[in-house]
């Protein structure tokens, strides 16, 4: 895999990688789109409810990319061109409808199954850290477009069924000609540290015991990112913060978020928890966090998340191992 670290962060943001040109200028060229689809070199990602076909290669994985002749029927979305000029599309359809033949599909990353050459259906949470740059970028893009299209079939103004245009990047209402574009919801995610250089980790009520992470929340209308950081921390745990510092961003298409990572300094440390959002919150020194992880008391977010990168950047080293 070709993975580079994000500037300012310790380690890569695994869902912020790509190796394609999105080729926006080609989306409105209907003749080019048809020629590209007819090209035997063109490759297709089949995506169904955020899942795609994945082939295991030992500890890594790769997308199963189909030719257009083997792709199932479904909505098509242009993803772009690679450095060699090969076009990539996504098709929203169940892989079970594909005309081609593949290895038996099993449950995602079933540990009882042999890994080498195994074909599975899996999503970004399971395989995002195992894919190379090209495949990771293609799958994030395809999943995000499929999720938006699945919930925007009808015009919000008149209720008419909309039509897919511009290679899957616009939906147009045939009745009032209004255009509707894929949504991205900005969300801030922040590691809060205090003057003793402890970090704040918390658990939502819906999470299992011991699973802790940094705080996060959606940006509200008319609000800056820095204001959102301060508001969310205050609302969720009652801590005041200052000096919000941007660290990096990562798409999180579950279904349409863009996670904007920050560090911020706490100017107060007493907790007042919003019980609907936060079940528990704790301050950790580096030694305390490592000891809690080694004992099994604390488990961190997955490697594919920006939350994990923020924690590791504060800690100063990768936090590896079966926590």
Automatic annotation (TrEMBL):
Residues 182-306 form the Nudix hydrolase domain. Keywords: Hydrolase, Magnesium, Metal-binding, NAD. It holds the Pfam family Zn_ribbon_NUD. Its cofactor is Zn(2+); Mg(2+). It catalyses: a 5'-end NAD(+)-phospho-ribonucleoside in mRNA + H2O = a 5'-end phospho-adenosine-phospho-ribonucleoside in mRNA + beta-nicotinamide D-ribonucleotide + 2 H(+). GO terms for molecular function: hydrolase activity. Signal peptide: none annotated. NCBIfam families: PRK00241.1. This is NAD(+) diphosphatase. It comes from Streptosporangium amethystogenes subsp. fukuiense.
């Amino acid at each position: 895999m070709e993975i580079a670290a994000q500037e300012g962060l310790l380690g890569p943001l695994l869902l912020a990688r790509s190796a394609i040109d999105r080729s926006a200028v080609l989306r409105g060229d209907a003749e080019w789109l048809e020629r590209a689809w007819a090209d035997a070199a063109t490759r297709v990602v089949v995506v169904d409810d955020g899942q795609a076909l994945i082939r295991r290669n030992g500890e890594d994985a790769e997308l199963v990319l189909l030719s257009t002749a083997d792709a199932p029927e479904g909505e098509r979305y242009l993803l772009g061109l690679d450095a060699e000029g090969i076009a990539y599309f996504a098709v929203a359809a169940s892989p079970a409808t594909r005309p081609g033949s593949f290895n038996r599909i099993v449950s995602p990353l079933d540990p009882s199954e042999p890994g080498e050459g195994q074909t599975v259906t899996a999503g970004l949470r399971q395989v995002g850290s195992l894919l190379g740059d090209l495949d990771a970028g293609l799958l994030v893009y395809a999943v995000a477009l499929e999720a938006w299209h699945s919930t925007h079939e009808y015009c919000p103004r008149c209720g008419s069924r909309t039509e897919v245009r511009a290679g899957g990047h616009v939906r147009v209402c045939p009745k009032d000609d209004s255009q509707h574009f894929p949504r991205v919801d900005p969300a801030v995610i922040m590691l809060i540290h205090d003057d003793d250089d402890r970090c704040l980790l918390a658990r939502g009520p819906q999470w299992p015991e011991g699973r802790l992470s940094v705080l996060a929340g959606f940006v509200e209308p008319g609000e800056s990112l820095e204001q959102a950081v301060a508001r969310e921390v205050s609302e969720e745990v009652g801590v005041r913060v200052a000096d919000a510092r941007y660290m990096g961003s990562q798409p999180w298409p579950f279904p349409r978020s863009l996670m904007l990572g920050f560090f911020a300094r706490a100017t107060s440390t007493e907790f007042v928890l919003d019980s609907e959002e936060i079940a528990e919150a704790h301050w950790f020194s580096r030694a305390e966090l490592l000891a809690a992880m080694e004992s099994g008391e604390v488990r961190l977010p997955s490697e594919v998340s920006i939350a994990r990168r923020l924690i590791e950047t504060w800690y100063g080293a990768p936090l590896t191992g079966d926590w």
